[in-house]
Amino acid sequence: MKEAEARAGEALRRLLEKVPILHIEDIEDIEGAAVSGDWRPDFIARLLVDGRKHLLICEYKSNGQPRYARSALLELRNFVAQRSPQATPVFIAPYLSPAVRQLCAEMGVGYLDLEGNARIAFGGVFIERMVSDKPAAEQRELKSLFRPKSAQVLRAMLREPDRAWRVTELSEISGVSLGHVSNVRTGLIDREWASASDDGLVLSAPDALLDAWRDSYTQPSGERLRFYTPLHGSALEGAARNALGMQDSQRHAAFASFSAAQWLAP
Questions:
Q1: 13 with 41: CB under 8 angstroms?
Q2: Closest CA to 95 of 140, 31, 47, 126
Q3: Which terminus, N or C, of the chain has the lesser number of Cβ atoms within 10 Å?
Q4: What percentage of the chain carries pLDDT values higher than 90?
Q5: CA atoms of 180 and 186, how far apart (whole Å)
Q6: Phi and psi at residue 71, to the nearest 5°
Q7: Which CATH class is domain 136-229?
Q8: Rounded-to-integer distance, Cα 74 and Cα 189, Å
Q9: Of 227, 190, 243, 193, nearest to 63 (Cα)?
Q10: How buried is 81 (Cβ within 10 angstroms: 0-12 exposed, 13-18 middle, 19+ buried)?
Q11: What is the rounded average pLDDT for all residues in the chain?
């Protein structure tokens, strides 16, 4: 097997070895095997379950984001239905978010990630493990998506959640470079919080985006001051702009952070 797939196979082996009624006959790389069609899974685990044979049809992806997981799950499910209806499909990735784990459950596909999350059920076997912490790489990606510059892009989109946006339009209205907008676009599409159409980028799950933003929010560093005002809405926004007393570009960036904090407040 390739190195990454070998790690996935070893993680599956360690998980299965903890089940007393299971005996692992083989975890077989099927590369080069005669399989009809254009798609084939990465490896097959051949098991004895209390003396009965059972197969796990496994697919490994280096990226477990919803965008990539969904297509892999469909391929796995179709392969099993056509070639081995009694087998159990299993999707494996470095990390699977709660949303992807839920998607696996809905589509009847078992899962395992290299952080330790797992759910595989067949016959008299039921394996489920959950790890609370996100891996450091996932936390960094989310924080990057919600940093001030990226937040300016998200704020523009959330103001008009049904609008289709071109990258150039988002760059102009948010004051963020085309390259940075493209990175935000990729992050949203990968997590299925937005979708790309001929008309542009459209938010497909604004509620999920806001929930993730809330969960990933960290208070900016610096001195924190508290004030009270009877103003709200547009009157509060106008007063805040005047109070900041900055140049237009600085005021725009600072106010974007201010508005994000409003959205994320309990």
A1: no
A2: 140
A3: C
A4: 59
A5: 10
A6: -65, -40
A7: mainly alpha
A8: 18
A9: 190
A10: exposed
A11: 85
Residue 33 has pLDDT above 50, yes or no: no
Per-residue pLDDT, averaged over 232-243, amounts to 82
Take residue 222 and report the two structure tokens written for it.
């610096």
Q: Helices then strands (H, E): number in the chain?
A: 10, 9
Looking at residue 25, its amino acid is E
User: Is 263 a residue whose pLDDT tops 50?
Assistant: no
Rounded distance, CA 54 to CA 13, Å? Answer: 14
Strand partners, 27: 45
Instruction: Give the pLDDT band of residue 266 (cuts 50, 70, 90).
Output: very low
Q: Which stretches of the chain are assigned E, i.e. beta strand? A: 22-29, 43-49, 52-60, 88-93, 110-113, 118-122, 125-129, 194-197, 200-203
Alpha carbon distance 110, 125 (integer Å): 12
pLDDT band at residue 37, thresholds of 50, 70 and 90? low
Tokens of 130: 């959950």
Q: What is the CATH number of domain 3-129?
A: 3.40.1350.10
- Write the DSSP string, 120-168: EEETTEEEEE---SPPHHHHHHHHHHTSHHHHHHHHHHHHSTT--B-HH
Sequence ranges of the domains in the chain: 3-129, 136-229
Q: Which two tokens stand for residue 180?
A: 């940075």
The pTM assigned to this predicted structure is 0.71
Sort residue 121 into left (φ over 0), alpha (ψ -120 to 50) or beta. beta
Report pLDDT digits (tens) over 133-152: 777 777 788 888 898 899 99
